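Onboarding guide, step 5: your first structure request.
Type a short instruction followed by the sequence, for example:

Predict the 3D structure of this protein.
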Amino acid sequence: MNKIPATVITGFLGAGKTSIIRHMIENNNDKKLAFLINEFGDLGIDREVLLGCGMEDCQEEDIVELSNGCICCTVADDFLPTMEKLLDRENPPQHILIETSGLALPKPLVKAFDWPSVKSRATVDGVITVVDSKALSEGKFASDEQMVQKQRQEDESLDHENPLHEVFADQLLCADVVIMNKIDLLEESEIKKIKLELKSQVRDGVSFIESSNASVSSDAILGLGFASEETINERKTHQEHHHHDEHDHDEFNSFTVELGEVKNIDKLEKDLLSVVKKYNILRVKGFIYNSEKTMRQVIQGVGPRFTKYFDRPWNDNEIKSTRLVIIGLHDINPEQVASELK
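The system replies with C-alpha coordinates like these:
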Protein backbone atom coordinates (compact mmCIF):
# COMPACT_ATOMS: atom_id res chain seq x y z
CA MET A 1 0.00 0.00 0.00
CA ASN A 2 1.49 3.33 -1.06
CA LYS A 3 1.63 5.93 1.68
CA ILE A 4 0.02 9.32 1.04
CA PRO A 5 2.73 12.03 1.14
CA ALA A 6 2.26 15.05 3.39
CA THR A 7 4.23 18.29 3.22
CA VAL A 8 4.68 20.36 6.40
CA ILE A 9 5.04 24.10 5.70
CA THR A 10 6.32 26.10 8.63
CA GLY A 11 7.61 29.63 9.20
CA PHE A 12 6.78 32.80 11.08
CA LEU A 13 3.67 34.92 10.65
CA GLY A 14 3.80 36.82 7.35
CA ALA A 15 6.67 34.84 5.81
CA GLY A 16 4.43 33.73 2.93
CA LYS A 17 3.16 30.24 3.84
CA THR A 18 -0.45 30.80 2.74
CA SER A 19 0.66 32.53 -0.46
CA ILE A 20 2.86 29.55 -1.33
CA ILE A 21 -0.05 27.16 -0.81
CA ARG A 22 -2.33 29.39 -2.89
CA HIS A 23 0.23 29.38 -5.71
CA MET A 24 0.36 25.59 -5.51
CA ILE A 25 -3.43 25.34 -5.82
CA GLU A 26 -3.40 27.54 -8.89
CA ASN A 27 -0.61 25.42 -10.44
CA ASN A 28 -1.90 22.10 -9.24
CA ASN A 29 -1.20 19.87 -12.28
CA ASP A 30 -4.46 17.98 -11.62
CA LYS A 31 -3.27 16.43 -8.35
CA LYS A 32 -5.96 15.96 -5.68
CA LEU A 33 -4.70 17.97 -2.72
CA ALA A 34 -5.98 18.40 0.83
CA PHE A 35 -4.95 21.18 3.20
CA LEU A 36 -4.71 21.37 6.98
CA ILE A 37 -4.49 25.02 8.02
CA ASN A 38 -3.45 26.04 11.54
CA GLU A 39 -4.25 29.75 11.76
CA PHE A 40 -5.27 32.20 14.46
CA GLY A 41 -8.43 34.30 14.25
CA ASP A 42 -12.08 33.44 14.68
CA LEU A 43 -13.02 33.89 11.03
CA GLY A 44 -10.85 31.30 9.36
CA ILE A 45 -9.56 33.89 6.89
CA ASP A 46 -6.74 31.72 5.51
CA ARG A 47 -9.23 29.01 4.65
CA GLU A 48 -11.44 31.56 2.89
CA VAL A 49 -8.47 32.97 0.97
CA LEU A 50 -7.57 29.51 -0.28
CA LEU A 51 -11.17 28.71 -1.24
CA GLY A 52 -11.25 31.97 -3.20
CA CYS A 53 -8.72 30.63 -5.68
CA GLY A 54 -11.58 29.72 -8.04
CA MET A 55 -10.06 26.39 -9.07
CA GLU A 56 -12.30 23.36 -9.57
CA ASP A 57 -9.92 21.20 -7.54
CA CYS A 58 -10.17 23.58 -4.57
CA GLN A 59 -13.13 21.96 -2.80
CA GLU A 60 -14.42 23.10 0.58
CA GLU A 61 -14.04 19.68 2.19
CA ASP A 62 -10.38 19.58 1.16
CA ILE A 63 -9.45 22.60 3.29
CA VAL A 64 -9.62 21.87 7.01
CA GLU A 65 -8.83 24.51 9.62
CA LEU A 66 -7.34 23.35 12.92
CA SER A 67 -8.66 25.98 15.30
CA ASN A 68 -7.93 24.48 18.72
CA GLY A 69 -4.66 26.32 19.21
CA CYS A 70 -1.07 25.78 18.18
CA ILE A 71 -0.81 22.62 16.07
CA CYS A 72 2.20 21.23 17.92
CA CYS A 73 0.35 21.58 21.26
CA THR A 74 -2.81 19.82 20.09
CA VAL A 75 -1.38 16.93 18.09
CA ALA A 76 -3.40 14.21 19.85
CA ASP A 77 -6.63 16.19 20.30
CA ASP A 78 -6.91 17.93 16.95
CA PHE A 79 -4.32 17.00 14.32
CA LEU A 80 -4.37 13.20 14.52
CA PRO A 81 -8.19 12.79 14.40
CA THR A 82 -8.28 15.15 11.42
CA MET A 83 -5.56 13.19 9.62
CA GLU A 84 -7.38 9.93 10.30
CA LYS A 85 -10.58 11.34 8.76
CA LEU A 86 -8.68 12.40 5.65
CA LEU A 87 -7.02 9.00 5.30
CA ASP A 88 -10.31 7.17 5.89
CA ARG A 89 -12.04 8.89 2.97
CA GLU A 90 -13.38 6.70 0.19
CA ASN A 91 -11.45 8.91 -2.24
CA PRO A 92 -8.47 10.13 -0.17
CA PRO A 93 -6.21 12.97 -1.35
CA GLN A 94 -3.07 12.27 -3.34
CA HIS A 95 -1.06 14.77 -1.30
CA ILE A 96 -1.69 16.61 1.99
CA LEU A 97 -0.28 20.05 2.75
CA ILE A 98 -0.07 21.14 6.39
CA GLU A 99 0.39 24.83 7.18
CA THR A 100 1.45 25.41 10.78
CA SER A 101 0.98 28.60 12.73
CA GLY A 102 4.00 30.88 12.91
CA LEU A 103 4.72 29.77 16.47
CA ALA A 104 4.53 26.01 16.01
CA LEU A 105 7.49 23.71 16.45
CA PRO A 106 7.62 21.26 13.53
CA LYS A 107 9.24 18.33 15.35
CA PRO A 108 6.23 17.20 17.47
CA LEU A 109 4.07 17.35 14.35
CA VAL A 110 6.45 15.21 12.28
CA LYS A 111 6.74 12.72 15.16
CA ALA A 112 2.94 12.34 15.07
CA PHE A 113 3.34 10.48 11.78
CA ASP A 114 4.62 7.53 13.82
CA TRP A 115 1.13 7.21 15.33
CA PRO A 116 -0.10 3.66 14.56
CA SER A 117 -3.23 4.71 12.64
CA VAL A 118 -1.20 7.12 10.49
CA LYS A 119 2.21 5.45 10.14
CA SER A 120 1.13 2.78 7.66
CA ARG A 121 -0.87 5.17 5.49
CA ALA A 122 0.95 8.54 5.39
CA THR A 123 4.51 9.84 5.30
CA VAL A 124 6.12 13.27 5.62
CA ASP A 125 7.27 14.05 2.08
CA GLY A 126 9.27 16.99 3.39
CA VAL A 127 9.40 19.84 5.91
CA ILE A 128 9.45 23.24 4.19
CA THR A 129 10.50 26.28 6.25
CA VAL A 130 9.60 29.68 4.79
CA VAL A 131 11.60 32.71 5.94
CA ASP A 132 11.05 36.43 5.38
CA SER A 133 14.36 37.42 3.79
CA LYS A 134 13.58 41.13 4.02
CA ALA A 135 12.96 40.91 7.77
CA LEU A 136 16.12 38.86 8.28
CA SER A 137 18.12 41.55 6.47
CA GLU A 138 16.84 43.99 9.11
CA GLY A 139 17.85 41.71 11.98
CA LYS A 140 14.32 40.49 12.66
CA PHE A 141 12.47 37.17 12.35
CA ALA A 142 9.32 38.76 10.93
CA SER A 143 8.52 42.08 9.29
CA ASP A 144 6.81 43.52 12.37
CA GLU A 145 9.12 44.36 15.26
CA GLN A 146 6.54 43.14 17.78
CA MET A 147 7.05 39.64 16.41
CA VAL A 148 10.61 39.67 17.74
CA GLN A 149 9.24 39.70 21.27
CA LYS A 150 8.22 36.49 22.97
CA GLN A 151 4.72 35.42 22.08
CA ARG A 152 2.36 33.19 23.91
CA GLN A 153 -0.84 31.44 23.17
CA GLU A 154 -2.79 30.07 26.10
CA ASP A 155 -3.92 26.52 25.52
CA GLU A 156 -6.36 24.63 27.74
CA SER A 157 -4.27 21.47 27.83
CA LEU A 158 -0.65 22.52 27.29
CA ASP A 159 1.52 25.49 28.13
CA HIS A 160 5.05 25.31 26.70
CA GLU A 161 7.66 28.01 26.85
CA ASN A 162 10.39 28.84 24.35
CA PRO A 163 11.93 32.19 23.25
CA LEU A 164 11.22 33.28 19.69
CA HIS A 165 14.81 32.80 18.49
CA GLU A 166 14.63 29.16 19.60
CA VAL A 167 11.37 28.60 17.68
CA PHE A 168 13.07 30.01 14.58
CA ALA A 169 16.11 27.79 15.17
CA ASP A 170 13.91 24.69 15.54
CA GLN A 171 12.03 25.49 12.34
CA LEU A 172 15.36 25.64 10.50
CA LEU A 173 16.83 22.57 12.20
CA CYS A 174 13.82 20.46 11.19
CA ALA A 175 13.72 21.69 7.57
CA ASP A 176 14.37 19.63 4.46
CA VAL A 177 13.98 22.74 2.28
CA VAL A 178 14.27 26.43 3.18
CA ILE A 179 12.36 28.93 1.04
CA MET A 180 13.90 32.41 1.15
CA ASN A 181 10.87 34.54 0.31
CA LYS A 182 10.73 38.27 -0.59
CA ILE A 183 14.19 38.33 -2.19
CA ASP A 184 12.85 40.88 -4.68
CA LEU A 185 13.11 43.42 -1.86
CA LEU A 186 16.87 42.83 -1.43
CA GLU A 187 20.14 43.47 -3.20
CA GLU A 188 22.12 40.46 -4.45
CA SER A 189 24.80 40.99 -1.80
CA GLU A 190 22.15 40.91 0.96
CA ILE A 191 20.67 37.67 -0.40
CA LYS A 192 24.09 35.97 -0.38
CA LYS A 193 24.79 37.15 3.17
CA ILE A 194 21.45 35.86 4.51
CA LYS A 195 21.83 32.52 2.74
CA LEU A 196 25.27 32.03 4.33
CA GLU A 197 23.84 32.79 7.75
CA LEU A 198 20.92 30.39 7.24
CA LYS A 199 23.19 27.62 5.95
CA SER A 200 25.14 27.80 9.20
CA GLN A 201 21.90 27.05 11.10
CA VAL A 202 20.55 24.07 9.14
CA ARG A 203 21.48 20.41 8.83
CA ASP A 204 23.79 19.21 6.07
CA GLY A 205 22.05 18.61 2.77
CA VAL A 206 19.19 21.07 3.23
CA SER A 207 18.35 22.79 -0.05
CA PHE A 208 17.46 26.47 -0.54
CA ILE A 209 14.91 28.05 -2.86
CA GLU A 210 14.79 31.80 -3.49
CA SER A 211 11.37 33.28 -4.23
CA SER A 212 9.54 36.56 -4.82
CA ASN A 213 5.88 36.91 -3.81
CA ALA A 214 5.92 33.28 -2.63
CA SER A 215 5.96 32.02 -6.24
CA VAL A 216 7.43 28.53 -5.93
CA SER A 217 6.84 25.68 -8.37
CA SER A 218 5.01 22.74 -6.80
CA ASP A 219 7.52 20.46 -8.54
CA ALA A 220 10.24 21.98 -6.34
CA ILE A 221 8.59 21.13 -3.02
CA LEU A 222 6.26 18.17 -3.69
CA GLY A 223 7.38 14.61 -4.34
CA LEU A 224 10.62 15.00 -2.37
CA GLY A 225 10.30 11.60 -0.71
CA PHE A 226 12.25 12.44 2.45
CA ALA A 227 10.09 10.35 4.84
CA SER A 228 11.10 12.91 7.46
CA GLU A 229 9.43 11.00 10.29
CA GLU A 230 12.07 8.27 9.93
CA THR A 231 14.91 10.67 10.74
CA ILE A 232 13.07 13.07 13.05
CA ASN A 233 14.92 11.90 16.18
CA GLU A 234 18.22 12.82 14.50
CA ARG A 235 17.01 16.40 13.97
CA LYS A 236 18.10 18.02 17.21
CA THR A 237 16.10 20.94 18.55
CA HIS A 238 17.60 24.05 20.10
CA GLN A 239 16.75 22.71 23.55
CA GLU A 240 17.24 19.00 22.91
CA HIS A 241 19.02 18.56 26.24
CA HIS A 242 15.81 19.52 28.08
CA HIS A 243 13.28 16.87 28.98
CA HIS A 244 10.46 18.62 27.13
CA ASP A 245 10.17 20.54 23.91
CA GLU A 246 9.01 23.89 25.20
CA HIS A 247 7.94 27.01 23.40
CA ASP A 248 6.53 30.31 24.49
CA HIS A 249 3.42 31.97 23.15
CA ASP A 250 3.22 35.43 24.71
CA GLU A 251 -0.44 36.19 25.22
CA PHE A 252 -2.13 37.67 22.18
CA ASN A 253 -5.66 38.62 21.30
CA SER A 254 -7.52 38.21 18.01
CA PHE A 255 -10.91 39.70 17.18
CA THR A 256 -13.12 40.54 14.21
CA VAL A 257 -14.15 44.01 13.05
CA GLU A 258 -17.24 44.36 10.80
CA LEU A 259 -17.26 47.51 8.68
CA GLY A 260 -20.08 46.91 6.21
CA GLU A 261 -19.40 48.55 2.84
CA VAL A 262 -16.16 50.50 2.35
CA LYS A 263 -16.19 52.96 -0.56
CA ASN A 264 -12.87 54.67 0.10
CA ILE A 265 -10.40 51.79 0.23
CA ASP A 266 -7.35 54.06 0.30
CA LYS A 267 -8.69 55.74 3.45
CA LEU A 268 -9.32 52.32 5.04
CA GLU A 269 -5.72 51.32 4.39
CA LYS A 270 -4.52 54.65 5.83
CA ASP A 271 -6.67 54.14 8.94
CA LEU A 272 -5.41 50.57 9.29
CA LEU A 273 -1.83 51.78 9.11
CA SER A 274 -2.60 54.28 11.85
CA VAL A 275 -4.08 51.72 14.27
CA VAL A 276 -1.33 49.20 13.44
CA LYS A 277 1.28 51.70 14.64
CA LYS A 278 -0.78 52.97 17.58
CA TYR A 279 -1.74 49.56 19.01
CA ASN A 280 1.26 47.47 17.88
CA ILE A 281 -1.01 45.23 15.80
CA LEU A 282 0.76 42.13 14.49
CA ARG A 283 -1.49 41.18 11.61
CA VAL A 284 -4.64 42.16 9.69
CA LYS A 285 -6.48 39.73 7.41
CA GLY A 286 -9.86 39.96 5.75
CA PHE A 287 -12.15 40.97 2.90
CA ILE A 288 -13.32 44.36 1.61
CA TYR A 289 -16.80 44.96 0.17
CA ASN A 290 -17.34 47.82 -2.29
CA SER A 291 -20.65 47.79 -4.20
CA GLU A 292 -18.94 49.40 -7.20
CA LYS A 293 -16.78 46.27 -7.59
CA THR A 294 -18.17 42.88 -8.60
CA MET A 295 -15.22 41.05 -7.06
CA ARG A 296 -14.40 40.41 -3.42
CA GLN A 297 -11.14 42.09 -2.38
CA VAL A 298 -8.69 40.40 0.00
CA ILE A 299 -6.54 42.57 2.25
CA GLN A 300 -3.63 41.23 4.31
CA GLY A 301 -1.17 43.14 6.45
CA VAL A 302 1.84 42.20 8.51
CA GLY A 303 3.01 45.18 10.49
CA PRO A 304 2.93 48.26 8.24
CA ARG A 305 3.07 46.30 4.97
CA PHE A 306 -0.32 45.69 3.28
CA THR A 307 -1.26 43.81 0.14
CA LYS A 308 -4.63 43.78 -1.65
CA TYR A 309 -6.02 41.74 -4.55
CA PHE A 310 -9.37 40.63 -5.98
CA ASP A 311 -9.86 36.91 -5.57
CA ARG A 312 -13.38 36.06 -6.86
CA PRO A 313 -16.92 37.39 -7.40
CA TRP A 314 -19.18 37.58 -4.34
CA ASN A 315 -21.51 34.60 -4.08
CA ASP A 316 -25.25 35.28 -4.21
CA ASN A 317 -25.84 33.63 -0.84
CA GLU A 318 -23.02 35.23 1.16
CA ILE A 319 -23.24 38.40 3.24
CA LYS A 320 -21.45 41.22 1.46
CA SER A 321 -19.50 43.04 4.11
CA THR A 322 -16.02 44.22 5.01
CA ARG A 323 -14.70 41.84 7.68
CA LEU A 324 -11.25 42.03 9.23
CA VAL A 325 -9.47 39.76 11.69
CA ILE A 326 -7.09 41.79 13.87
CA ILE A 327 -4.29 40.02 15.75
CA GLY A 328 -2.44 41.91 18.47
CA LEU A 329 -0.76 41.41 21.83
CA HIS A 330 -2.84 40.46 24.86
CA ASP A 331 -3.35 44.01 26.15
CA ILE A 332 -4.90 45.37 22.94
CA ASN A 333 -8.35 46.94 23.32
CA PRO A 334 -10.65 45.56 20.57
CA GLU A 335 -13.35 48.19 21.21
CA GLN A 336 -10.91 51.07 20.75
CA VAL A 337 -9.49 49.61 17.53
CA ALA A 338 -12.96 48.92 16.11
CA SER A 339 -14.16 52.40 17.09
CA GLU A 340 -11.26 54.11 15.31
CA LEU A 341 -11.74 52.05 12.14
CA LYS A 342 -15.50 52.67 12.06
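Each response can be followed by summary notes, for example: The longest strand covers residues 122-132.
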